[in-house]
């Protein structure tokens, strides 16, 4: 915060010529002299003192007045010096505050650079499931949680979409030479609707899918996200899966088997 500082000291400002102040000073001196003369004349006539004694009294009165005036001028000089010192202290404090603010501005750390895209194929299976759950939470499913493990019956992530549908996700962290096959999809298709009561069933595979697996998924209304779809979703280049999934009029056909 910038505080305007004075350009000149009080003493320098008083040194400048002021016609009104000078005129007033002369008039005051004239009044003092006239009044003093009248008072001296009245005192001389009233006391009957000889002229020498009256003159001595006048000199003493003038000397006393001079001493008083000198003391007042000295007091004004002391007040001016104190005021100048106070201004200097304020100026020094403001300068220190400005210097501290400039130092803090220079010391502020640069904002961190945004993280690059995640290579999901390099994650271990559990970290991959957590990454998929985090994508769901990022895009409007705050209750997304990892439930995969022994006895999960094909569900690795469960969530509720922003429009209230139940999302069941199976995560396949496979290598590029190991694609999810039709039997993987059949096992998931046998539990995702009947057991987990999914409104949207999704399989995410870092290795992609075989053609028979994609055919089975289409018949059972199971969404399949391979590495390209997963990367687009993760980097914000595509909407989340539930926004592309239509609400089925009836549940998927039971008893479908893959080739």
Task: Quickly list its features.
Trna Endonuclease, Chain: A, domain 1; rod-shaped; single chain; 53% helix; 259 residues
Topology:
Layout lengths: L9 H6 L3 H29 L3 H57 L17 H14 L6 E2 L10 E4 L5 E7 L9 H11 L7 E6 L5 H9 L2 E4 L1 H8 L6 H4 L15
Helix pairs in contact: 2-3, 5-6
Verbal overview:
The chain is an alpha/beta fold and 259 residues long. The chain folds into two domains: 98 residues, no CATH class; 124 residues, Trna Endonuclease, Chain: A, domain 1 (3-Layer(aba) Sandwich). A five-stranded mixed sheet has the order 1-2-3-4-5, with helices on both faces. Helix 6 links the parallel strand 4 and strand 5. The longest helix is centred in the first third of the chain and has 57 residues. The chain is rod-shaped, with a radius of gyration of 48 Å.
CATH 2nd-level architecture of the largest domain: 3-Layer(aba) Sandwich
Low-confidence stretches: 9-13, 249-259
The CATH topology of the largest domain is Trna Endonuclease, Chain: A, domain 1
Q: Percent of residues in helical segments?
A: 40-55%
β-sheet strand percentage: 5-15%
Number of domains: 2
- Form type: rod-shaped
Distance between the termini: 76 Å
How many strand segments?
5
Class inferred from helices and paired strands? alpha/beta
Please provide the ordered H/E string of secondary-structure elements: HHHHEEEHEHEHH
What does the largest sheet look like? 5 strands, mixed
Q: Please give the order of strands in the largest beta sheet.
A: 1-2-3-4-5
CATH class placement of the largest domain: Alpha Beta
Report the mean per-residue pLDDT as an integer.
Answer: 76
